[in-house]
Amino acid sequence: MASVEQAPAAAQGGTGIPVENPATGETITTVPTLGREDVHELVARARAAQPAWDAIGFDERGRVLRRAQKWVTDNAERIIATIVSETGKTYEDAQLAEIMYAAAAFGFWAKEAPAFLADEPMKSANPLVKGKKLVVRYRPVGVVGVIGPWNFPLTNSFGDCIPALAAGNAVILKPSEVTPLTSLLMAEGLRAAGLPEDVFQVATGDGATGAALIDEVDFVMFTGSTKTGKKVMERAAKTLTPVGLELGGKDPMIVLADADVDRAANAAAYYSMNNGGQVCISIERVYVEAPVYDQFVAKVTERVKSLRQGRSDGPGSIDVGAVTFPPQLDIIDKHVRDAVRKGARVLTGGRAGNGPGMFYEPTVLVDVDHSMSCMTEETFGPTLPIMRVGDAEEALRLANDSPYGLQASVWTKDTRRGEQLARRVEAGAVCVNDAQVNYTALELPMGGWKSSGLGTRHGAGGIRKYTQQQTLLVTRFAGKRDPHMFPYKRRTTLLLGKLTRLLYGRGKRD
């Protein structure tokens, strides 16, 4: 189990934050709250360490990342125990969505970083640069600040640090004050893997700690709510610090009349309830064509009713864990009560638990519409509202009737039609006959449209965002003076005008 003693030395000042197990209500430990001066010191140390980390090159950085990959697999049980203790999630949610992701990500970025960030030779049609060497290169920004969420302390918090490190940056991770222990444990793992001192540091603390970090670093990666993301962007604007944002989602599922209802129902139950519904790309609302609506609802309700909820006691012990963040429990209950007050029916669940931990029963809602917050606002909990629609066009219109655009799914046996419909959904990622698994394909960019974020993680863009592009133009062979240089001469100017018409004056005219 990670402890406060594993925090960096500079992190020991300030007041403490108790870390609780949301499944039991018990306090696990206390971690420091770093102040502005503490953060300043961390960044100064990171700046001092970063040039040497960059200078060792991709091969050596890759070796460190591969050793970290092995450390994760060797210490999987310890990491899972830490994640489960501070999030209240199930063993399987920690294993499948966190350990497997981190292990894959270390290897992926170690392998792909050199290709994604290699110098790119360019060619130009402009005759003025003929014979010159044109190159685009990528250099690390310097110090990256990652402000992570509480729902996936390894995958969506620490996970963003891996490509930033692979690119040659130093990284300071500010984890959620609710779930800081996994980040501290990963700092231990990176040290064991041979990462140089101060290249990766953890800044435990609250919102003020995050604000101080934004003021100091060269790039900010934030994952969390849209409301907080706007504050991060506003703060970063004061120093013109670039940001990457993965924000809220209200991900729709569209079930067409020709869908495999059994598969769709199994997927709806799983991808709405896994990790207690606390997934940015969780299925949060469903639109089902009328011919299969009743059948779909019956199957989903049956599956959700059978889910076991409680404190995880190891593999296979429960299906749905606790609500990790205390205020989230109130939001979930508020959305359900609002829906019922406006005419929705609860087919299963619909109540908060009575135990010492923070639980909300897996819930299925029907007779819902867009006047209800459960269909328009991010719930981020184990609820699934299902709405009957007349046809695919109505489903598409309702799916796009949202300020969010993170992910969506379309379900149909006609995959060609499904893909056509998917291309019309206003979301950064859309699956046909699947959900969420695109996140495991690290080659695919993952990012939100509309109020769901800026930029992407994964793919080439997921590491290039942690770099600065630099253009190089090298003139190897040239005379003393080019024709366009001073002094201007009438004859030369007229010749250049003729050249312009020759090169660009042959465009198609209406």
UniProtKB/TrEMBL annotation:
Catalytic center residues: 246, 280
Domain of life: Bacteria
Stretches for region Disordered: 1-25
GO annotation, biological process: aldehyde metabolic process
Single GO term (MF): oxidoreductase activity, acting on the aldehyde or oxo group of donors, NAD or NADP as acceptor
Domain spans labelled Aldehyde dehydrogenase: 12-471
Family membership noted in the UniProt record: Belongs to the aldehyde dehydrogenase family.
Protein name (Swiss-Prot/TrEMBL): Aldehyde dehydrogenase
Species in which this protein is naturally found: Conexibacter woesei (strain DSM 14684 / CCUG 47730 / CIP 108061 / JCM 11494 / NBRC 100937 / ID131577)
